Amino acid sequence: MNTLLLAPSELAAAADGVVRLAADRRLRHVRAVHRAAAGTVLRVGVLGGRLGRATVVRIDDTGLDLAVVLDREPPPPAPLTLVLALPRPKVVRRVFQAVAALGVKRLCLVAAWRVEKSYWESPLLAAAAVTAELVLGLEQAGDTVLPAVTLHRRFKPFVEDELPAIVAGTRGFVAHPPAAGRCPCDLAAPATLAIGPEGGFIGYEVDALERQGLAAVSLGPRVLRVEQALPALVARLCGP
Ligand code: SAM
Q: Which of 17, 87, 220, 221 is the most exposed place for a label (fewest CB within 10 A)?
């Protein structure tokens, strides 16, 4: 946790400029990892709001009191919408964290032929569970703005009815290892990027995405896991 994130309600409840946090994951972390004591200065942010710093006023088993100064805006978002074939539950947690840490602000999880239907029943897709993983990614990267995550259980209606509005005004790509085109670097324009399931998109799906204006692109002959392909593609498209 590089940045401790406060809920807006915690900030609103501050008395005399001091935010009081109950004993929770954040307290355990700043004690165990930061070895915080009275006077320690921590990086903080407010979910959906500004970043800044907080001086520890009191810390004990019952909670944490912080004098908070919020003086910076969160970093700019990655100008990219991600369309991702739903990964298996073990991977999806890491993907949520990576999406938030990379600054992607819109994630559409979609069905595909090689996505097992049982994955949609995972408790990790419950809204609270998704938010918990996204917050870990924001804390890691020092951001405060949660990505919007939507679930699309049917590939064809999503691609034909919803994707056109998502792609409009962006450059679209589908990451596909055998594609002839190389993934471009440092796009100046907003992008829409589709990443396939562990077994890859089938030909029908690549064709359907291409019909909506997504160009098939490759990172080269090394076939990467989804959680490896994601940062490689986002870093390449959005560039430093
Ligand atoms: N055998 C599958 C295939 O050839 O498509 C491998 C799928 S890979 C484990 C999962 C997804 O990550 C792919 O569908 C693609 O979107 C992305 N990916 C992985 N390696 C890639 C590469 N070298 N170039 C482009 N995309 C890649």
A: 221
Query: pLDDT digit string (tens) for 30-86?
Result: 999 999 999 999 999 999 999 999 999 999 999 999 999 999 999 999 999 999 999
Which of 72, 99, 121 is the endpoint of a domain?
72
Q: What is the DSSP letter of 223?
A: P
Please tell me the total count of domains within the chain. Answer: 2
Q: How far is the CA of 181 from the centre of ligand 1 (A)?
A: 14
Q: Are residues 87 and 33 in the same domain?
A: no
- Mean model confidence pLDDT for the chain: 96
Mutation probe of ligand 1 site: the residue of 195, 224, 233 with most atoms within 8 A of C-beta: 224
Nearest atom of ligand 1 to the alpha carbon of 220: 23
The neighbour count for residue 156, using CB atoms within 10 Å, is 11
130 token code pair: 């998704």
- Give pTM, 2 decimals: 0.94
For residue 58 and ligand 1, the question of a CB distance below 6 A is answered with no
Task: Give CA–CA dist 87/103, Å, rounded.
Answer: 19
| Strand pairing category for 41-46 and 51-60 | antiparallel
Which residues lie below 8 Å from residue 93, measured CB to CB, with a gap of 6+?
Answer: 124, 133
Sign of CA dihedral 201, 218, 210, 151: positive
Domain boundary among 49, 72, 95: 72
Tell me, in angstroms, the distance from the centre of ligand 1 to residue 199's CA: 8
Residue ranges making up the domain that contains 64: 4-72
Condensed to tens digits (0 to 9), the pLDDT of residues 165-222 reads 999 999 999 999 999 999 999 888 999 999 999 999 999 999 999 999 999 999 999 9
